[in-house]
Amino acid sequence: MGIEGRGGNEENWRRTGHGGSLFSSLASVLLARSSKESATCWRRTAKLVPAVTRLAMRDLTHPIKAEDFKTHVDDRAAVESLSQSNARFQVTRRGRVYGVCMGGLGDMESLVWLHSLPKLRSFSVATIGARKWFGDAELAAVVAVPQLRAVAACTCERVTASRVCASGRFDHIRWLALPSCQVADEGVNEIQRLSNLFSLSLIGSTSSDKVLKGLDSLRNLWRLHLGVTNASPTTIDHLAASLQRCQIYMPDRSFRERGRRGRSR
Fold first, then answer.
1. pLDDT in tens, 33-76
2. Which residues neighbour 230 within 8 Å (Cβ) at sequence distance 6 or greater?
3. Which of 9, 131, 152, 205 is geometrically suited to a Cys-Cys bond with 177, CB 3.0 to 4.6 A?
4. How many whole angstroms from its chain centre is CA 246?
5. Do 217 and 242 contact (CB within 8 A), yes or no?
6. Entry's SUPFAM superfamilies (predicted)?
7. What pTM, to 2 d.p., does this model score?
8. Which residue has the higher pLDDT, 231 or 253?
9. Where are the beta strands (DSSP E) in the chain?
10. pLDDT of residue 253
């Protein structure tokens, strides 16, 4: 599709990269639906995923506590266990959980309960307390949950993504957001195995320019965020040419005309 910078989508970038609530940031990172191109991308995506998955991608801004909704009987045990880690949830009208946000200290045992939520489609790490314990082993365990489609771990200092595919089950993941994590060359090489990704955020990655260039192997990408990385203009142009359906977001790129796709001067 093209390259977008701060000038082309300033309001969206302000929300994703510079403050605002975490869930607003996550929604923007995964969706960024303000432009016409994004709306087109959304329509294409909607045809490929079940309705409950579209709910999980669309409504990421209002997680609620377990006591604020009537849990479906099949999800009750998992919700009670996850609530002990101060998790919050997105739910359908029937009380089925399709989104989980970890909001406090947890452990690997609490993540096992994610397998017990058949309608689960999105998972995120939200608070400082959760970021302190959530690392590569936990990320690999989450990615292995077969019903998940969207995973976001923001500002997790223990996440390098070097083991994201360790379980061998990862083809179901469509959205991956790892902004401000410790993702270096090894992590980006591992992420390249996620061949079915639609959206990827590597904001703040310390990976080298050469390795970032290898993201051209992700042929299904429609959205790629590479703000505050070592990606050179040459690499960005290469990715734009190789991934013609993909919108590449670079906050430091300028535009000939505000709000219009195109290459920087």
1. 444 444 444 444 444 444 444 444 444 456 888 988 899 999 99
2. 205, 206, 207, 208, 209, 212
3. 152
4. 15
5. no
6. RNI-like
7. 0.76
8. 231
9. 2-4, 88-91, 97-102, 122-125, 150-153, 175-177, 199-201, 223-225, 247-249
10. 53
CA angle in degrees (0–180, nearest 5) for 187-232-153: 35
Q: Which two tokens stand for residue 160?
A: 């390098």
Sign for the CA dihedral angle at 171, 172, 178, 182 comes to negative
**Domain coordinates of the chain in residue numbers?**
1-49+211-265, 53-173
Q: What angle do CA 242, 172, 13 make, to 5 degrees?
A: 55
What whole-number distance in Å separates Cα of residue 80 and Cα of residue 219?
40
Cα dihedral across residues 147, 58, 123, 159: positive or negative = positive
d(CA 229, CA 39): 26
